[in-house]
Design a protein that fits this description.
196 residues, 2 domains
């Protein structure tokens, strides 16, 4: 049995060979990621044998099959780690949909103050928040900030207002306008920071 002088090169060649069905740029990205991982592991654990590091990575056939499965799901362009300039996956829902649902929930409740209005407004807000949280157009911090400012905070303000009957002398219209400005401002911010 022939032993190789460079097991890392052989391992990466095997991954590249097994992943030949991948697009060339995705295959190169996969090999670059593995190379970087191997180098980092060697630096962090200098006494570890290279065979052990390669065994921890897994079989090249399995790595290539996983990358091919991701490419089949449409996630081949998704970065393994968040990096500048890395392409983002395309979402199934347009990024404007959750923003409109979150923003228009309040005017819907104001235009139809009877029972169906508030019910639909709450459903809009909850659906918009779920769509925002599951979207690929924003990172986790942006999603959390968006949900807090467009769903949680307005709901808490309305609940407090309804439980205390509002501060005496202050019309509910002022609170509604301030809340609408908060919803619109947050939606504009989320629109501007979205990933294409």
């Amino acid at each position: 049995m022939k032993t190789s002088a460079d097991p890392v090169r052989d391992y990466l060649s095997a991954v590249e060979r097994e992943g030949s069905a991948l697009p060339a740029d995705r295959r190169q990205e996969l090999v670059a990621d593995l190379t970087e991982h191997i180098e980092v592991t060697r630096t962090e654990r200098p006494g570890t044998a290279i065979a052990e590091i390669l065994a921890e990575l897994g079989d090249p056939r399995t790595i290539a099959a996983t990358a091919l499965a991701e490419a089949g799901d449409g996630t081949a362009g998704a970065p393994a780690r968040s990096g500048a300039g890395a392409p983002a996956r395309r979402g199934k829902v347009h990024p404007l949909v959750p923003l409109l649902m979150l923003t228009l929930s309040l005017p819907f409740m104001m235009v139809f103050p009877d029972l169906p209005g508030p019910l639909f407004g709450v459903l809009f807000r909850v659906t918009g928040a779920v769509l925002l949280c599951t979207s690929v157009h924003w990172v986790a911090v942006q999603k959390t900030t968006g949900v807090l400012l467009t769903a949680v905070l307005p709901s808490a303000v309305f609940a407090t207002w309804n439980l205390t009957d509002g501060p005496s002398g202050t019309p509910a219209v002022v609170g509604n306008l301030v809340t609408l400005a908060l919803l619109a401002g947050t939606s504009v911010w989320l629109w501007r920071v979205r990933r294409a």
